[in-house]
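Hi X.,

You mentioned you wanted examples for the new student's onboarding notes, showing what a folding record looks like when two proteins sit in one file. Here is a clean example. The first protein comes first, with its sequence line followed by its structure tokens.
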Amino acid sequence: MTRFSESLNNVLQDLQKGHWSKPLLELSDKFSQLPEDARFDNDILNMLLQLRHDLEQDPSLPLSVIAAIRFSSLDAFLLIDFILQRDF
């Protein structure tokens, strides 16, 4: 088990979303070619940690909806959008 998968499992347990682990690990693997300073796994963990903090402040927040919104603004997805809009 990698450090990322351990950290991911820990935060997902806190969020009671352990079933998100496999899809998030698979998604992270798809972005493994990104440069070290743009690691997608770091973005995933940071987003989940922020979600955990937000839920501590307001437990009534719709976690899945907020996660979906935040995923769309992660750097990796913005990079893909930029590449797809380029005319090579």
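Then the second protein repeats the pattern, sequence line and then tokens:
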Amino acid sequence: MASTKELLQMDLYGLLGVEGKATEKEIKKAYRQKALSCHPDKNPDNPKAAELFHQLSQALEVLTDAAARAAYDKVRAAKKQAEERNNRLDDKRKKIKLDLEARERQAEAETQKTEEFKITRTLEEEIARLREEGSRQLQEEQRLIREQIQKEREWRLNAQSTHADLPSAQQDKRKVTPKLKLKWKCKKDDDTNGGYSQEVLQGLLQKYGDILNIIISSKKKGSAVVEFSTVRAAELACKNESGLTGTPLKISWLEGQPVSAAPPGPDYSRTGVFTSSQTSLSSERDYESLVLMRMRQAAERQKLIEQMQREDEEEEVAKT
């Protein structure tokens, strides 16, 4: 545990990202989220991650113990009041204050104000007690984190093994970004294209997830292709979006329609381990996929344009 002086310089609430009035449940939740990302087992080559994990553990120890937290809050409140008083002083009074403090430091170098000494001493005693007794809550939280990290490792290995066993054609299919075909009724001489533009479609569909491309056909009105970054976003848009009231959308899959192949993730609800890391792990995979898709975005966009042109030409031929 850090020394009392070090703790006095740390903003324990800020370190955990919670308010000063946060409940114990909120403090534990914040600790879990931050400690998981910087756990030494997940960052073996990053010494700063280990240091941050240690500081988070110290913050949890103090803020989940009622007596230690009360003592820390008093020190924190005293510092805040002193800062507020200092901020209210004008330049002239600040100079007077600095001169006075210099004389006081010279005359009372070995003394402290009675109240400050008392609350600091109380915090020291509480920290000493925690050091002797150990923090049961901290040990329990760290045990849960270790269990979750192990489950995530097993899940990754299982997912990698399943992916390796898939036929090459199915693996190639999984690499295709999800694309939807949009159609709506529109007259040939309608300059507004039925009320749809790239901005309008972006506004309607972005609530379902990140959009990589929106291509509106330049040859045939009432037709567009939308490329999403994730299959889930495309699924939601396909199932739920109806478009503008006067000119509803007809949405169908063009590419990347999902196939159930991935193994289920670990069930955290049975063990009591918090489930926020499921989201973080999924987000990590989505981010990696998104980076790769961004690299191919220009080529995909050109491919979409060419594909739409071919489809429009085929439809024109079929009509004639």
